[in-house]
Amino acid sequence: MISSTDEPLHVLDLPQLYQKPSGTDLVKALALLSLKPRTFGTTADVVKGPAVQPAGVTRYLTSIIASPLAWLDTDELREAIWDAAAARLSERSGRTAMPAMSRVFNIPTSSGEECTLTLHEPSITADNLGMKTWVSSYLLSRRLHTLESPPTLVPTASADSSASNPRKSLRVLELGAGTGLVGLSFAALQGKSATVHLTDLPEIVPNLAHNAALNVELLDRTGATVTTGVLDWSVTPSPLPTAEERFDVILAADPLYSPKHPKWLVDTISPWLSRGLDARVMVEMPLRDAYLPQVKEFRQRMGDLGLAVIEEGEEVGYDDWESADGGALAVTCWWSIWGWSEKV
Ligand SMILES: C[S@@+](CC[C@H](N)C(=O)[O-])C[C@H]1O[C@@H](n2cnc3c(N)ncnc32)[C@H](O)[C@@H]1O
């Protein structure tokens, strides 16, 4: 019998196979063993511990998979229980082995309310990191509502400015958007005053487009316009973008994890960022030891391009990877907002 308590259960409190438990009891036990991906957060206490102590759980799950479950009534029930046990086992192999999932993110708005985005995250491997939502994108999304928005983000005056159409829509580009959290949050917050183009590598864009479609109700309600497409930083755009094609705001979260990335990223920002003094680049990235040289190089290259930091800071978030002791993994992230230091 499984009782509901705040203390984690012991695996021996779960129905044991020698007792020939009912299918319902096994399904309930397997639900309790579900390792939900950790909630991203700004404090460690948002992360809940497991409902069952980890000791012995792997053996319990493998014994279910190995059992013919002969006392259960139907093949369907047996299949469902084997599938659930296999899923629980793969969750315990780490975040990369987790099955595809949909996750919900609450993003604060300037009115004090929250908007809710749903993002699909396919199963990830080491070479498609954009299939997962990373902690710095969550922190940057939660920061977006605090940014001065208009007038700091007033787009460059357009030729058709008039009393009825005083400003054109803000043109926003997200680089390496991954699952799209930052760009979709920006679109939801800015509503009809922005058009947001979410970009990534070809293999990531289908899921990005899927996520834009998943949030269509929210985006329609706010009047936001979102498009998605391929933009590979390693490729120089040809022909170069015209002044009208450039973007007022460029967003990027967690974009540096290879020695080539600082140069590629800044070389991509250069042609695509509007030359207006109101143009902004907003980036947030984890300060992982291994990639500190890339962060330093990025700063250097942005400065060389003529961009200067307007505002910056560090904050700690909690990624959904576990630390060695099984607790939430604290990640210090650096956020920065850049503008042209002089009209270029
Ligand atoms: C660590 S993930 C971050 C994804 C997302 N911004 C987030 O924070 O959740 C890095 C992203 O950069 C993208 N990326 C890497 N190299 C790229 C390139 N050459 N051109 C465009 N995107 C690239 C990856 O596909 C991936 O989506």
TrEMBL record:
**Example GO molecular function:** S-adenosylmethionine-dependent methyltransferase activity
InterPro entries xref list = Methyltransf_16, SAM-dependent_MTases_sf
**Any one Pfam family match given in the protein's UniProt record, by short name:** Methyltransf_16
- GO CC, alphabetical: cytosol
What is this protein called in UniProt? Glucose-inducible SAM-dependent methyltransferase Rrg1
Q: Which species is this record about?
A: Penicillium bovifimosum
